[in-house]
Design goal:
By secondary structure, the chain is an alpha/beta fold. It contains eleven helices and twelve strands. The strands form four sheets. It has a five-stranded mixed β-sheet, covered by helices on one side. It has a three-stranded antiparallel β-sheet with strand order 10-7-11. Strands 1-2 form a two-stranded antiparallel sheet.
Amino acid sequence: MRVTQSRAAGLDLNLLVALDVLLEESSVSRAAARLHLSEPAMSRTLGRIRKALGDPVLVRAGRAMVPTPHALAVQGEVRAVVERARGIFLAGGRVDLATLNRTFTVLANESFTAVLGAALFARVAQQAPGVRLRFLAESHIDVPALREGVADLELGMIDTRSPEVRTEHLGDQRMLAVARSGHPLLRGRLTARRFAAARHLIASRRGRLEGPVDTALAELGLTRQVVGSVGTFPTSLFVIRDTDLVGLITGQAAPLATALGLEVFEIPLELPVLPFGMAWHPRHDADPAHAWLRERARELAAGGAWSAEASPGAAAPPPNGRPAAGTGGLKGPADQGL
């Protein structure tokens, strides 16, 4: 941590744990509840932390408390130290899930949370009732969330090339088209030319207006009409429901569309599959609680939830252009741009 040697000498692991929780909660009362302390005791601990760091750490902003710039600057380092210390004390590779009191922050697309969040929360409640899951939405900018300790696990299209991040492939996704029920595109044989002639809406966290679909169409000498983009898959579905726009969705996220009465159908193009995986920082390698969370993700993958073959008609688009049935699902790519 960026503190002087004299100040560092006055710190102990309990203060670091308390600082980690305070920065995560931005609340003395919530931090006190998590650490099983009284609010006065938590306030005294915050006072010790402020004295040791020479910084207010948390300051009032209306009715809430917000971290100072210095606190935000050291938050990742504090989390890393706490995780390494936890790994040392849990080096035996065992963890008592029944008494585990931990918050895991998961960086994931909203479609993942909407489709499989309930199953994951239920599994956690059954095995480790003291564990809390905090899902963060993907940002329109790329940040080193795993390295800085902002997130403990990332689920989705893992495109990081950082050598300090562990990655694991969990399965592949196929892209399907989605439109409102009764859309003219669903009548008759669906060809690449008819598909391109429709008005399209893109879901892209970065605001992109083109992607692999446009590349595939260009190889056929075709161009589609993209009228705009929105930040997430769920948002795109609500727009598509009330318009004649055509969107894209992963086969395994189809329940989100069918729940809104939308039609999911094959795209008459040869498109690459979308690899789905998880990523984490190496400091979690020896953490049995984190390993348990990673195993839960693997279980979902092993159940076929992220398999490209799990969607019907994976070999080729249907010749009659009729919609394919939706299947159970997961999240789409981190930035579809399709």
